Amino acid sequence: MKEQRSFVDNSKGCLFLVPTPIGNLEDMTFRAVNTLKDADLVAAEDTRNTKNLLNHFEIPTELISFHEHNTAQRIPELIEKMNAGLKIAQVSDAGAPSISDPGKELVKAAIKADIPVVPLPGATASVTALIASGIAPQPFYFYGFLPRKGKERTEALNDLSQRGETTIVYESPYRVKKTIQDLIDNFGAERQITLARELTKIHEAFLRGSLEQVAKYYQDNDPKGEYVLIIAGKPVEAATQDESDDDLVVAVDSLIKQGEKPNKAIKEVAARNGLKKQDVYNLYHGIGEEQ
């Protein structure tokens, strides 16, 4: 086992993963532009869309198509080029490569061939929607596009409905109404959700409320644009506290004596009893007690 060093002299080439704007060209970073200019080749999901992007930023680098339908053919070609020393930049139509877009297979192949893989930070719809959602931003679980139908969709919705983390789902305007109804059936009408659409574009908009409220909204309004759904996690059910305050303190002390760090011990005792970690922390340290 060894580390992959991204920025060292290497006889081989390199695979750069370059995010592109999700709607606003001003979100293109200086580093992304320079990387695309310095690359020997740009592997693009759709060469027509990417050509427009390159033209806008006056990037003359040659393009080659790389999408879900030619992956098996292209990967050996691209690996051979990088083994010969070429620098290849991979882009998708919008956002980061591999995130609900082609790319992960090429990354795996490059790693297997001991070719450096260098990711660039940049635009991504999921986190952009999350931080403006008004729903707890962490922890979160990114799912992407739901299966369209059948057992896979049913199982996915059932699994997601039980998660305590905030969930991020992508959806097209043509399936938003159906997905909202499926979420009501599996998550309950009161679960909170934020729908973000047309992110970074002139018609960017957010719809926040319960699933029931959102369903009613779409009875009178047609969905428009690509959507990111930010769904609140399953609420923690109130648990009956079976142990007294003294018992909780003793339980924390017992774990610490067994070698656990205090914060971890507090977290574990809180989880066992369905309590907030902060409440057990305050209790253990005597915070808030009357003097």
TrEMBL record:
<comment type="function">
    <text>Catalyzes the 2'-O-methylation of the ribose of cytidine 1402 (C1402) in 16S rRNA.</text>
</comment>
<keyword id="KW-0808">Transferase</keyword>
<keyword id="KW-0963">Cytoplasm</keyword>
<dbReference type="InterPro" id="IPR000878">
    <property type="entry name" value="4pyrrol_Mease"/>
</dbReference>
<dbReference type="GO" id="GO:0008168">
    <property type="term" value="F:methyltransferase activity"/>
</dbReference>
<dbReference type="InterPro" id="IPR014777">
    <property type="entry name" value="4pyrrole_Mease_sub1"/>
</dbReference>
<dbReference type="InterPro" id="IPR008189">
    <property type="entry name" value="rRNA_ssu_MeTfrase_I"/>
</dbReference>
<comment type="similarity">
    <text>Belongs to the methyltransferase superfamily. RsmI family.</text>
</comment>
<dbReference type="GO" id="GO:0032259">
    <property type="term" value="P:methylation"/>
</dbReference>
<dbReference type="Pfam" id="PF00590">
    <property type="entry name" value="TP_methylase"/>
</dbReference>
<keyword id="KW-0489">Methyltransferase</keyword>
<feature type="domain" description="Tetrapyrrole methylase">
    <location>
        <begin position="15"/>
        <end position="214"/>
    </location>
</feature>
<dbReference type="InterPro" id="IPR014776">
    <property type="entry name" value="4pyrrole_Mease_sub2"/>
</dbReference>
<dbReference type="InterPro" id="IPR018063">
    <property type="entry name" value="SAM_MeTrfase_RsmI_CS"/>
</dbReference>
<keyword id="KW-0949">S-adenosyl-L-methionine</keyword>
<dbReference type="InterPro" id="IPR035996">
    <property type="entry name" value="4pyrrol_Methylase_sf"/>
</dbReference>
<keyword id="KW-0698">rRNA processing</keyword>
<protein>
    <recommendedName>
        <fullName>Ribosomal RNA small subunit methyltransferase I</fullName>
        <ecNumber>2.1.1.198</ecNumber>
    </recommendedName>
</protein>
